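Input/output pair, single chain:
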Amino acid sequence: MADQNQNIPQFDKSKFNNSPYVKRVPKPWGYEIHWVPEGEPYMGKILHINKDAQVSLQIHDEKKESWYIINGRAKVIWDNNTGELIETELQPGQGYTTQVGQRHRLVGINDCDIVEVSTPEMGTTFRLDDIYNRGDETEEIRKEPNRGWNE
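Output:
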């Protein structure tokens, strides 16, 4: 019997890392838990949004995001296919995706946790409306401990 593993490519095992990773990022509306190390070609987060709090109304010039609510209630205010802002309550068991250039804002109806997966933290997040008076988030600001916001 031929070796079934003969067609498996060789991998650089020196890049294997079995250490856990987590980074907590405070936000004025709650916090983010990043579980994917920086530099990967994707990002994974848990967004904790406090009751009645909201993220900025924003547009990404390079980043796509998808959300899945894991507890609590939240809604997204976002552009439909005619450019009109609409509200959609996130439903348990359903995923939601925003595209590059699509305005969007998440709002906590009550305290909630949302899984967010996305392309890497890249490009600029243009904050069109932000009740916390934060400016746009650029690559440089992402290097700061609180990403442009002081607690």
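The helical segments are 139-142. The two ends are 64 Å apart (CA to CA).
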